[in-house]
Specification:
With 124 residues, the protein is mainly α. It is 65% helix and 8% strand. It has helices spanning 2-29, 33-42, 49-56, 60-72, 94-103, 112-123; strands at 76-80, 88-92. The chain starts with a helix and ends with a helix.
C-alpha cells in the first residue's frame, strides 16, 4: 500500500514540474504550452484542425480555441484545400516561423524530472 502513495507522490512531482515548465514557458514566449506544441507541430507542416487535434490529444473545441488564439497573434494562417474547398489547413506565418526559432522546440531547458521523461519517451 505504501508503494501506491509513493507512486502518487512521484506523479505529483511530475505534475509540478510540468506546471513550472508551463509557467516559465508562458513568461518567456507569451504562449501557453498547447500553443507552443501546436506551433512546433506545424513546423514544416500544413495540417487540418482534425489532424492537429489528434496529434496533440486535444478536444476539437480546445483545438479551435488555440487555433483562434494563434491566429490573433498572427502566428498561423488558415488556407482552403486545393482539391476540397471545404477542407481547412493550418500553417505557420513568417511571424510563426520566427516564434518557432525563438522557442527552439527541440532544445528547451527541462527540469531533471522532465528530462528523464522526455528521454524515456524518445526511447519508446
Amino acid at each position: 500500500m505504501a508503494e501506491v502513495g509513493q507512486n502518487l507522490c512521484k506523479i505529483r512531482d511530475v505534475y509540478r514540474a510540468i506546471m513550472n515548465f508551463e509557467a516559465d514557458f508562458q513568461r518567456k514566449f507569451n504562449l501557453c504550452l498547447n500553443e507552443g506544441m501546436m506551433l512546433c507541430s506545424l513546423q514544416n507542416n500544413k495540417l487540418s484542425p482534425k489532424e492537429i487535434s489528434q496529434l496533440l490529444g486535444l478536444t476539437t473545441s480546445n483545438t479551435s480555441k488555440i487555433i483562434n488564439s494563434l491566429e490573433v497573434k498572427m502566428l498561423i494562417k488558415r488556407t482552403l484545400g486545393k482539391t476540397d474547398k471545404r477542407q481547412m489547413y493550418i500553417s505557420l506565418t513568417e511571424k510563426g516561423n520566427q516564434k518557432i526559432d525563438e522557442v527552439n522546440c527541440d532544445r528547451q531547458n527541462f527540469s531533471p524530472i522532465l528530462n528523464n521523461i522526455v528521454d524515456i519517451v524518445a526511447e519508446s
